[in-house]
Amino acid sequence: MAAKRTALIELDDGVCCAPLLVAPLADDEATELALVFAALGDPVRLRLLSLVAAGGEVCSCDLEAPLGKSQPTISHHTKVLADAGLLTGEKRGRWMMWRIVPDRLEALRAALA
Amino acid sequence: MAAKRTALIELDDGVCCAPLLVAPLADDEATELALVFAALGDPVRLRLLSLVAAGGEVCSCDLEAPLGKSQPTISHHTKVLADAGLLTGEKRGRWMMWRIVPDRLEALRAALA
DNA sequence: CCGGTATATTGACAACTGTCGATACATCGA
DNA sequence: TCGATGTATCGACAGTTGTCAATATACCGG
Predict the structure, then answer these.
(1) Which of A6, A59, A112, B65 pairs with A77 at a CA distance of 20 to 30 A?
(2) B70: CATH
(3) Nearest nucleotide, C1' to the C-alpha of A70?
(4) Does residue B1 fall inside a structural domain?
(5) B34–A49 CB contact, under 8 Å
(6) Of A34, A40, A108, Cβ closest to residue B42
(7) Is residue B42 in a domain?
(8) pLDDT digits (tens, 9 = 90+) for B52-98
(9) What is the torsional sign of CA A22, A24, A26, A27?
(10) Which residue is nearest to nucleotide D22 (CA to C1')?
(11) DSSP code, position A61
(12) What is the CA radius of gyration of chain B?
């Protein structure tokens, strides 16, 4: 039998969903998606994300000054974004290097279609 | 002189921003964008949005049952979504009819590019 | 004008969140 | 090994948020 016609958006834990405007979301789909949008629902995290995007690869210590937040706060926000799958981090020596996850953003764009 | 090359995303209050990944966001841009994403950062609101999208035009009273929430709660969520510009409401007699604002969703998609 | 109905607002409360200081952990250079 | 540095975690606290019962407001039919 043929696969579903509408492209499904891949979320964490193997949960998928059709684009927002195509079919009503199920409970777990909505919960999963909301987690990602909630991660974007904070000005500091949005600016953090755009800083990492602009730099390509940015270490945590280089985010404190431009964002004007303490080190624990930066660490908190990077964790939230990483948990949402929007950021990926690699520890290099003492430094934690962060990069954008383009596929994740693209999945979000698809979910808004 | 030529206009800016990158398309700007239109937000409330005449605030605009370049796509997230193109240039670091300014403070007010981030605050404005975060408000919209925060509106999407709740499972009930995401399901509400998808219900309205599926129905084309849906009245508040038809949302209580499928969402399993009280009438004041539905009213609260529609207000949050409307404030974020994602939903537009028109009072018809006793009923409040809600519709999606496609341009707003498209602007969000553009901001994620 | 009155009773019924759809919606908005208010007040209250528990749960969550953003923030920072203090502290612990990890890694490097000397 | 030791001190310095970058990061994560913990504890605390103020502010925000999702929820509902109660109430107020708006609108319709008779």
Answers:
(1) A112
(2) 1.10.10.10
(3) C20
(4) no
(5) no
(6) A34
(7) yes
(8) 999 999 999 999 999 999 999 999 999 999 999 999 999 999 999 99
(9) positive
(10) B72
(11) G
(12) 16
Instruction: Write the DSSP string, B89-100.
Output: EEEETTEEEEEE
As averages over each run of 10 residues, the pLDDT of chain A (113 residues) reads 44 62 86 97 98 96 98 98 97 97 94 90
Q: Is A34's CB within 8 Å of B41's CB?
A: yes
The domain of B35 spans 26-111
Structure tokens at B46: 């995401």
For A75-99, how does the pLDDT look when each residue is reduced to its tens digit (9 = 90+)?
999 999 999 999 999 999 999 999 9
Task: Say how many C-beta atoms besides its own lie within 10 A of residue A64's C-beta.
Answer: 14
pLDDT, mean over chain A: 88
Whether the beta carbon of B93 falls within 7 A of nucleic chain D: the reply is yes
A44: closest chain B residue by CA: B30
Strand C at less than 7 A from CB of B55: no
